[in-house]
Write a structure and sequence with these properties.
Blueprint: E1 2-3, E2 10-11, E3 23-29, H1 32-42, E4 51-55, H2 65-69, E5 75-79, H3 82-94, E6 100-106, H4 108-120, E7 128-132, E8 138-142, E9 148-152, E10 156-158, E11 165-173, E12 178-183
Parallel strand pairs: 3-4, 3-6, 4-5, 6-7, 8-12
Antiparallel strand pairs: 1-2, 8-9, 10-11, 11-12
Helix pairs in contact: 3-4
């Protein structure tokens, strides 16, 4: 993962095997399972040694459980919701040792939920790869009331808590796992520019 010079918006890339790793954990959600499947194949003769963790009941994107279950690997874990996946990964990360490599594929919201969990256990950014899949919808944090709204596909969105009309900025907070939303009509109440759907595949 890299950050552009002028923005905090994350940049993602296609997952690829890291030859420096000693243990490889592939973590997916929804159609991120397709990326996990391609990565598994890219490991070639080492594919049987990787581990797969997958959110099989993602509300967004295709369910790749059947094809992932068919892949030979050291361990495969399938969960019916994100909380169960995170609980399982928390236990896994508690036992993490040097040489661990994480490969995460799913929505941006999913990517940073898992990445932030990994950071809690001292796993570094250079020990993980991230690939965005499914929707480009954003999670938006209201700077006025701190509530988050998801999924957001438009340039302007009403805060789900306080109702402010928020301009969705490119400034991304990894800690909050959200883009910042600023009230767009603060100086001229009711004057709202055209709302457009922009965060779509």
């Amino acid at each position: 993962m890299s950050i552009t010079a002028n923005r905090s918006k994350p940049a993602y890339r296609t997952l690829s095997p890291d030859p420096s790793g000693l243990r490889h954990i592939l973590i997916g959600q929804g159609d991120g399972g397709r990326a996990i499947g391609r990565l598994h194949a890219a490991f070639g003769a080492q594919a049987g040694a990787v581990e797969i963790y997958y959110d099989s009941q993602s509300w967004i994107g295709a369910n790749r459980t059947t094809e992932l279950r068919a892949l030979p690997c050291a361990q495969s874990r399938f969960h019916d919701h994100g909380n169960a996946l995170e609980a399982d990964l928390r236990e896994c990360f508690q036992q993490a040792q040097m040489g661990l490599r994480l490969y995460i594929a799913g929505t941006e919201r999913f990517i940073w939920a898992i990445s932030n969990l990994a950071f809690e256990f001292g796993i570094r950014e250079d020990e993980m790869q991230q690939q965005q899949a499914d929707s480009l919808a954003r999670q938006v944090a209201c700077v006025h009331c701190n509530a988050t709204t998801y999924p957001v596909r438009t340039n302007i969105v009403a805060c789900s808590a306080c109702g402010c009309q928020l301009l969705v900025r490119d400034h991304f907070s990894r800690r909050l796992n959200a883009y910042m939303g600023l009230q767009i009509d603060a100086e001229a109440p009711g004057e709202i520019p055209t709302i457009e759907e922009v965060f779509v595949p």
